[in-house]
Amino acid sequence: MKYLKNVVTLQFSESKCNGCRRCIEVCPHGVFKIVGKKAAITDKDLCMECGSCQNNCEQEAIQVESGVGCAEAIIRGWLTGTEPSCGSENSSGCC
Amino acid sequence: MPDIPTTFIPLSDLTGRKDEIKPDWVTGSINSAIGPVAQISCEWDQSDKVGQIKARISNAFRMKYAIQPGLYAVGNPDEDSPVLLSANYKLSFDILRRELKTLNVWIIVLDTKGINVWCAAGKGTFGTEEIIRQINYLKLERVVKHRKVISPQLGAPGIKAHDVKKMTGFSIKYVPVFAKDIQQYLQDGLNATKEMRRISFKIIDRMILTPMEVSQVLKQSWKYGLGVLLFFGLMPTGILFKNALMDGLPFIFLLLTAVLTGAFITPVLLPWIPFRAFFRKGYLIGLLPVILVHYLSYKYGGLFNDPFLLASSYLLVPTLSSYLAFNFTGCSTYTNPAGVSKELKSAIIVYAITIIASIILLIIYKLKIWGVL
User: Which residues of chain A have a CB within 8 Å of the CB of B216?
Assistant: First the structure.
C-alpha cells in the first residue's frame, strides 16, 4: 500500500553515509538499500516518516520531519499552535 | 511482602496497584547477580485473553493496562542469555512473552507509562533515556557478560542506538517487527531477513483496530444524538416528542451509518477503495448509505421526501464518514504526517463548505416545517 505521492520529507545525504546499514535494519518499509558501500533510497513514497532512520544514523546523514500522523492530532496542533501530539496521558485519544 | 523480586522498579502511580500484588503470570523467581528476578510464564491464561479484548475496545481500560517496569526472566536465563526490551503496556508484553516459549532470556520492561512500543517510541518514552536509566539502575553489566540489548524494531523511532552504546557500553540490536519472528532471529545469530523487517497492514490488522475507533466515536455520540432529537422536536409550540422521534431517529440512523462506513468499512476495505487520500476514501464510502436510503425512500416513500433534508444528508453523512476515515491515518502503518497535513488542507475546505451548506439547508427545512417559508 502506498500513501500520497511526493509528500515525504525524507532527505538522505550520501556523502555523510558510512554504510553502517542501521537505516536498513530499522526501516519498517524497506525505504533503504545498500548500493556499493553506501545506503540509497529505494522509493521515498513508502516512507511513513517515523524517524527511526534519522535517530539511529550516527553520521546524521538522514533527515526527516517525523511526528504523529493522525488527523485529529494535527488539527489540534493547528488550533493550539503546538506540535501535533497524541492526547496527553489522561485525555482520551489514540495510542 | 512475599516472593517479590527486588529488581522490580516501583511503578509510577499509573495503575494504582501496590508492589505487593504478584500478577498471575509471575510464576516464581530466580537468582541473578543483582538479586532475585521475577520469572514469568509464556502462556496466556483466561484473564490475559479477556484483557486483550478489553484493551482493544475500551480506551479507559487500555490506558490503565500496565505492568511493573523492571527486569523479568523467561525460563532460566544466565549471564550469556539475550536481553530483550519491552514496553510496560501489558498487551505489548503479553504478545512478546507468548513467543518466548522454551527460551531462556531476560526482559527489561521499560516504563512507557502503559503505552505500546510503537506509540511510546514516537513519544520518546520508549527511548534512549529510559533504556540508559534502566541499564544503569538494574546494573545490567552484572547480570550478563555480553554487551547487547535487543529492542523491538518498532521501538527504533525513540532510540539513538549509538547514544545508548556511548553511555552504557551496550549496543542495540533490533529484533524484527513481529514477535513471532523472534525465535528465528535468535537462532540465526541476530539476523533477520528483509521480509521480517517489513511491517504489513493486512485486513486482519486493520479489522482488529476498528472496535476502538467505533467505540471512541459512539462514546461521544449521545450528545449529538440528543442535539438531533432536539432539532427535530423543536416546534413553534414547544418540543414535540413525536417529531423528535419520527424525523430525528431516521436522521440519527443515517449518521450512525456514517460511523459504520468511516470507522469500520473504510479501514477494513482500505486498499480496495479508490483514491489514496483517506478523507476521499471515507467520503466516497459515506455516500453509499445516503444513496441507498434515498433510493428506498424514492421507491417505497417515506423518510426523506423533503428535498432540503435529503440534500443536507448528502452533505453531512459523507463528511462525517470522511472525517472518521481520515482519523484512521493515526492507526495505519503506512501513512506519514506530511501526507496527512496535505490531505487536511483539502479536507478542511470540503468540511467547512459542507457543514455551512447543510446548516443552511437544515434551517430552511425547519422554517418550512414551521410554516414560515
Answer: 92
